Amino acid sequence: MADTLLIELRTEELPPRLLAKLGQAFAEGIVTGLKERALLAQHAPFEGYAAPRRLAVRVPGVEARQPDRQVERKGPGKLAGFKPDGEPTPALAGFARSCGVAIADLQTTTDPKGVEIFVYRTTQTGQDLAVALQELLSEVLARLPVQKVMRWGAGDASFVRPVHGLMALHGSEILPLTALGHAATRTTLGHRFLSKGPLTLPRADDYAVVLERDGHVVPSFQARRDRIRMGLAQAAAGARLLAEGELLDEVCALVEWPAVYAGHFEEAFLEVPQECLVLSMQQHQKYFPLGDADGKLLNRFLLVSNIDTDTPQGIIDGNQRVLRARLADARFFYQQDRRIRLEARLPGLANVVYHNKLGSVLARVERLSALAAGIGAALDSDAGLAGRAARLCKADLVTDMVGEFPELQGTMGGYYARHDGEDAVVADAIAQHYRPRFAGDALPEGPVACAVALADKLDTLVGIYGVGQIPTGDKDPFGLRRQALGVVRILMERQLPLDLRDLLAQTLAQFQPGVLAADTAEKLHAFMLERLRHLLRERAWTPEEVEAVLSHAPGRLNDIEARLEAVRHFRTLPEAAALAAANKRIRNILRKNEAHAPAGAAVDSQRLSEAAESALYQEILRLSPLVEAHLLQGDHVGALQALASARAPVDRFFDDVMVMADDPLVRDNRLALLGRLDNLMNRVADISRLST
């Protein structure tokens, strides 16, 4: 008989950042296993629960017993089953023995190849739910995404946290299961302080109701999260939450019965940069800082307590005292740091190792300063300011504030640079030089900030990649993929007129000879274009469009999106498919005859004996300056659209002209003509990649 199944594993407090993932894996593992064992319909609903001290799942419609099923085992062929004297072969005898029957009880059938074989058919009796579930529960617990486990007590059980109980109900019946040293019951425990004694569940469907009503526990992670979000919105009283997202998930994993309370701190602390205060509240105390409509920090915050009470002032006062001490530390660090200029901190960077093969952070700063100045000059910006910003951009690494909050590196450097009287452009570049820190993050603003950000990322890429620390699989300890994506985004989205190959060569030149692999720049260029490929595909450009633009391994990235737009427009033209196919054919011919048609070979117009090849040559002469004019104006769409008129002479050429003529001079001249056409057709993109 089908009924609701409930399984709950009760533990010590589970790791907050892992709770949601554990709850999902536990519930989905149980449900998938039930379906595989024919105990549950394929599209049956279920509800998973994940609270700080429990993982659970409730599944309606679970059968009490597996259905009986027909089992068929295939054995040896009939011809191979008996010896010439009629005696069974060892293969047939062994097959019958493994099935637990006599040879006479075996049947025969024909396999898909038409060969007659022995088979054993029987009806397998379905298992009881408890038997099947015992095996399934052990499998699911073993597969949970846990890296480290604990042992407790005198037993051999191990789990991410000590386990204190197991509940397993099918309808109103207790299933005789065991897990991690505990036998299943129908009881559980509620909130540590608000619940009174064990909770007994009459039926599996009563789980969430009983826990909330009598145990003061909201077992559903999502329901608890929604309750916290609503409480925060009400308590904010019109103010703006300055931290949510991951903090909301983490707080949700810390409380069973959430209650939101509002607190405040002294306005005097607002003299400290708000990034410091927000981080202190969010990271250390798990508070939600509040700001005004413009995002400016207010001296108010919200906290989520695990106790709902009508007299919360004691909770609020205690949290305010703790926060006051935290903010006082932040203010002390800020005041102490400003007593020493950033420039005076530079010698201290000599004692900070950047990489054992690449020297100290001070040596790195010298490289960054030279490289940023060069990039700034190439951008027609102030090379001196770019070099100055790069020289100071790592000085905040040896400040007290960054020592306490490493996430504030760069940000604090910008504040301290302004306090030191540095140019505002320098301070902004220091504050922004880590941008973009993650996918979708803002880019640095202005040429000086872009120059410093590029220098920082390029130095990391070239140095780390050059000493062999290349990302493999999901391992990228130095964040090279993120750094590469940052470089290509800055070059492409800020439309900087810089060549990536040149930038890599300039960066490589800053290192001592022999330190880095000789082919670093070349391999790194390919690595960075691969990151660009992923980025462009995420932005809904098709693989064919992306390959058409990137197949030539471009150095300049500032017009990549313009070229992609041109390719997409070109594909809508009626001539596009034929020209792409013709270009693919040309590419194949030239590839097979590279010895006879070197790149850039001149066309001898006097050897163009066929009318079709002369017409194609004249069309190339007509189109070349037209296409070049469009490209000089940055009109990639116009350049590709102009090529559409070449379809008729190209088609006529392939219809009327034998490229591989017997006369080698005629053949090579025709190959040179195709090479000239290939170069013209692919100035914007390799349109042969558009041919299917």
Brief sketch in words of this structure:
With 692 residues, the chain is α+β, with helices and mostly antiparallel strands.
Topology record:
Blueprint: E1 3-11, H1 19-36, E2 47-51, E3 54-62, E4 69-77, H2 90-99, E5 107-110, E6 116-124, H3 129-143, E7 150-151, E8 158-159, E9 163-170, E10 173-174, E11 178-179, E12 182-185, E13 187-188, E14 199-200, H4 207-215, H5 221-236, E15 240-241, H6 245-252, E16 259-264, H7 274-285, E17 288-291, E18 297-305, H8 313-337, H9 342-345, E19 353-355, E20 359-360, H10 361-378, H11 383-392, H12 400-404, H13 411-419, H14 424-432, H15 447-466, H16 480-493, H17 500-509, H18 520-538, H19 543-550, H20 560-570, H21 576-592, H22 611-632, H23 636-643, H24 647-656, H25 664-681
Parallel strand pairs: 9-12
Antiparallel strand pairs: 1-3, 1-9, 2-3, 4-6, 5-6, 7-8, 9-10, 11-12, 13-14, 15-17, 16-18, 17-18, 19-20
Helix pairs in contact: 1-3, 7-8, 10-11, 10-15, 11-14, 11-15, 13-14, 14-15, 15-16, 15-17, 16-18, 17-18, 18-19, 19-20, 20-23, 21-25, 22-23, 22-24, 22-25
Number of helices: 25
Task: Give the overall shape, derived from the CA principal axes.
Answer: flat
Give me the count of strands.
Answer: 20
Q: Report the C-alpha radius of gyration, rounded.
A: 36 Å
Average of the residue pLDDT scores: 92
Please state the oligomeric state of the protein chains shown: single chain
End-to-end separation: 56 Å
Strand content: 5-15%
The helix fraction, in percent, is 40-55%
At CATH level 3, the topology of the largest domain is Hypothetical protein af1432
* Second rung of CATH, namely the architecture of the largest domain: Orthogonal Bundle
Q: For the record, what CATH class of the largest domain applies? A: Mainly Alpha
- Class inferred from helices and paired strands: alpha+beta
Overall domain count: 5
Q: Point out poorly predicted stretches.
A: none
Biggest sheet features: 7 strands, mixed
